[in-house]
Amino acid sequence: MTEPDPRRWKALTVLALVQFMLVLDVTVVNVALPRIKEDLHFSPAGLAWVVDGYVLMAGGFLLLGGRLSDLVGRRRLFLIGTALFGAASALAGASVSNGMLVASRFLQGLGEALAAPAALGLVALLFPDPKERTKALGVWGGIAGLGGTSGTIISGALTNIGHGTWRLIFYVNVPVALFAVLILPRLADESRAVRAVDAVRQRPDVVGALTATGGLSLIVYGFLRAGEVPWGSASVVGSLAGGVALLVLFAVVESRAANPLVPLRFFENRTRVTTNGVTLFFSSAFFTYFFLQTLYLQLVLHYSPLKAGLSYLPFGVMISVAIGVGTGLLPRLGVKAIMTFGFVLASAAMFLLTRITVDGSYASQVLPPMLMLAFGAGMCFPGFGNASLHEVSQEDASLASGVQNAVQNIGGAVGLAVLATIATRHIGGAAIGTARYAQRAVDGYSNAFLTGGIILAIGAVLVALFLEQVHVTADPLGVPDPLAQPGDDASSASSSAAGDAATVPAS
User: Fold this and answer.
1) CA 261, 263, 268, 272: dihedral to nearest 10 degrees?
2) Among the listed residues 319, 346, 373, 288, the one whose alpha carbon sits nearest the alpha carbon of residue 51
3) Which candidate in 101, 168, 306, 416 could, as Cys together with 156 as Cys, close a disulfide (CB 3.0–4.6 Å)?
4) What is the rounded distance in angstroms from the CA atom of residue 53 to the CA atom of residue 61?
C-alpha cells in the first residue's frame, strides 16, 4: 500500500474549510434576504434568484465539474473553482444592483460545481488507508453539516449590525478562498484519473451541461416572471417554451454524446429513478420552506435578523437527532418504510404551516411544524443516500452519487421558483410594512405551503408504490476505492461533495 502523505491532515483542514464555506453559502443568505431586498430594490419574485442562481449553477454543472477534475487534475480544478468562488463573493459583496448580485451568485455556484467534487476526490486520495479515509470523510461530512446548520445564525449575526452589513456574508469568503489557493499547492500533489494523452479522447459533455442548465434557468425565470406579470405574457411563455426546448435539446445531445453526463443505462433501475424523482419533490418544498419562513418571520412578525437566525436552532438540533435515528433504523425497517414516514411527516408539517397568521406565535405556529419538518427530513436523508445507490455498479457509483446531489439542487431551484410565484402573485403590489401587505403575504405563504404539502404527499405515495426494499450499503457515500484499480474515477465519484450542501440546504 502507498505510504500516506505526511501532509494529509493539514490538507484535509484546508479542504474542509473550503467545503464549509461552500455549504454555508447555500444557507447564509436566507436571513439577509429582507435587507438585500430593501437595499438593492428586488421585486418579491426576483428575490428568489439570490438563492436560485447559486443552486442552479451548482446543480447544473456538478457532474461536469467531477468529470473535468479527472481530466485536467483535481488540485488544479479545485484551485480554479475556489478562486472563482472567492472572486464571485467579492463581486456579490460589492453589488450595486440586483442584477449584479444575481450574476455573482451564478458565478459562485459555478465555482462550487468545479471545486467541490475535486476537493472530495483529493480527500479520498490523500487517505489510502480505509480506516483513516473513513475518519477523514466523517470529518468532511461533519464540517459540511456544520456549515449548513450554522448559516442562518451567522447570517443573522452579521446582518443584525445594520443596513448594508449583509455584504459581510459574502466578503468573509474572500480571505478563506485566498488562503486555500495559496496554501493547498504546498499540501497536496496533482492527481488525475485520466492520462493527459487520453484527455482529448474522453472530453466531457460540456454542451450537455450548458443546455441542461440553460433550460432549467429559463424555466425558473419564466415561473418567477409569472409572479409579476400575467401568465400569457410574452416573457413568461417565451421563457418557459425556450426552457423546454433546451431540455429537449439536452436529451438529444445526451443520447448522441460519446461521454454523456448521464448515460441511458442509469435509467434502467426503477428504485434509483424513483429516488431521484422524489428528491426533486422533497427539495422543492424544503428550499421553499426556509425562503418563505424567513420572510414571514422578518416581514410579518418583525423579527430582527439575529432573532430570525436563532429561531432555527431547534431545527438544527432536531434534524441531527433524526438523521441518527433514521440511520439506526434503516437495517431493520428498510429504506421504503423510513422514507415513506419521512415524507408523510414533512407533508403534515407543510400543511400545519398553512395556519400561520399576521400576529402569529412562534411557540404555537412556527416551532411545531419546524420540528416536524426537521424530523421528517432527517429520516429521509439516509434513505436518499442509500436508495440512490441501489444495485449500482462500481463503474456507476460516482454517477449515482453525483446525480442524486445534482437533483437536490435543481429540485430546490425549480420548486422555489414555482412555489415562490404562488406566494408573490397573491401579494401583488401591497407595500411592505402595511397591514394589507402582512395579510396578503400570510395568505400567499399559506398557499405555497399548502402546495408544498401536496407535493410531499405525492412523493410519499410514489415512494410507497415504486421504491423497492433497499438493503443498506456498506459505504454510505458510495465512493469507490480510488486506489483499488488504476484509473478509478475518484473525483467524479466524489461529486457527492457538492451534495452535502444540498443535504442541509437551509437549516
Assistant:
1) -20
2) 288
3) 306
4) 12
